[in-house]
Amino acid sequence: MATLYHFPFCANSRFIRLVLAEMGMEPVLLEEKPWERRDDFLLINPAGSTPVMLEQSGLVIPGAGIIAEYLDETRGLGLSGRRMMPEGTADRVEVRRLLEWFLVKFESEVTGYLVTEKIAKRFMSMAEGGGPPDMHAIRAARTNVRYHLKYIGYLIARRRWIAGDHLTYADLAAAAHLSCVDYLGDVPWDEDETARDWYARVKSRPSFRSLLADRVPGMAPAAHYADLDF
């Protein structure tokens, strides 16, 4: 059985949790607070970031993109019609392009700011970077999420799913990031109905249930967070 080191509101960790659930895998989940920089965790992943997957064989696979590629290479062929990386070269390029968009660009422009300022800092010591949230960073993220939402709406208006006709890693990555922002009530869903309807489809999948059950101690989610028909 595989082990996944994750932080519940690390969006890239949430992406891998969705991937594993879609593949029918139930890993051992070990919560890791990256800002603590535990020596034992740094021995596994010197970068100190989540997610990290540890196979029963002892193989360490660090980083969401690397884990996704690894899982497709080792389990993808056995998924038949449920494989989340397409077979065509051009289609695979498009999925990888959008993975980069959400795992890196969306993370650096939206999720990273909001999760750090509104969630992580609540549990950090001053030495670890804790303290009051930076409202400039929060305002920047709230501005940035609007054009990302419009881009998702643009893609879905032309395709059944974000990268094409089938559910792929791209949908799970986008939904994982939006789920963190949605917990905080910072997604302006009324600005793009197409994007909202797509998110409702992904959110309704069984793989999403564990994410919707996550809670930040002392911080309730937005009222519609776990509502499948919002």
TrEMBL record:
Swiss-Prot/TrEMBL keywords: Transferase
From the UniProt record, give one GO term of the biological process aspect.
glutathione metabolic process
Task: List residues of the GST N-terminal domain.
Answer: 1-79
Where the record annotates domain GST C-terminal, the positions are: 88-225
> EC number(s) for this protein?
2.5.1.18
What is annotated about its quaternary structure and interactions? Answer: Homodimer.
**Annotated protein name in UniProt:** Glutathione S-transferase GST-6.0
> Lineage from the top down?
Bacteria, Pseudomonadati, Pseudomonadota, Alphaproteobacteria, Hyphomicrobiales
